[in-house]
Amino acid sequence: MRNLKICVMALIIICFALTGCNENKSTETVENQQILSQADVKALGEYIVDNTEFEDYISQVDNEIFFSLFNLDEDVIEDAVFYSSTGATAEEVAVIKAKDGNGEAVMKACEGRIQAQKDGFENYVPDELDKLSKPVIFNADNVTIYVVCDDSEAAEKLIANYDNKEI
Fold first, then answer.
1. 3-class SS string, the chain
2. Count of Cβ atoms closer than 10 Å to residue 117 Cβ
């Protein structure tokens, strides 16, 4: 009976300790979302490209092509930057700042882009489907970040740790 009480007390202490850790992470996430939502789109895109490992050469693409590939109307976007590989891989980065109330449309456009890429690479380079099955699509207020790369966990950490001071 005494061992049972000790185990129960230990579990309660662990639960409180883990809850405390979770609260700090939540605060950091909120602060990071505020930073990301106010970040310069082009600077944030450049930061992600410069600090992410890509298999293929990746370069900035003209906005006209971006709007076409993402099937977005210019009227819903305040600012955007898009980087794409040579076409040999599915690697891409986009940072998109939507006009107020259009964040959902941008998220759907990113999901549509992923599906279009899956359809395109399915018979062309099937190995790329692994990257496309775990894209990073992150939304902070009206800013959406879209990354397709080999190491999506590293890209997520990079975005989570962005503090706008690297620029």
1. CHHHHHHHHHHHHHHHHHHHHHHHHHHHHHHHHHHHHHCCHHHHHHHHHHCCCCCCCEEEECHHHHHHHHCCCHHHEEEEEEEEECCCCCCEEEEEEECCCCHHHHHHHHHHHHHHHHHHHCCCCHHHHHHHCCCEEEEECCEEEEEECCCHHHHHHHHHCCCCCCC
2. 20
Tokens coding 64? 């006209």
Note the pTM of the prediction, 2 decimals. 0.80
pLDDT, tens digit only, all 167 positions of the chain: 555 444 445 445 444 444 444 333 333 454 678 888 888 999 999 999 999 999 999 999 999 999 999 999 999 999 999 999 999 999 999 999 999 889 999 999 999 999 999 999 999 999 999 999 999 999 988 999 999 999 999 999 999 988 866 54
Whether residue 83 contacts residue 61, with contact meaning beta carbons closer than 8 Å, is answered with yes
Phi, psi (deg, nearest 5) at residue 164: 70, 15
Among 61, 55, 67, 63, residue whose Cα is nearest residue 83: 61
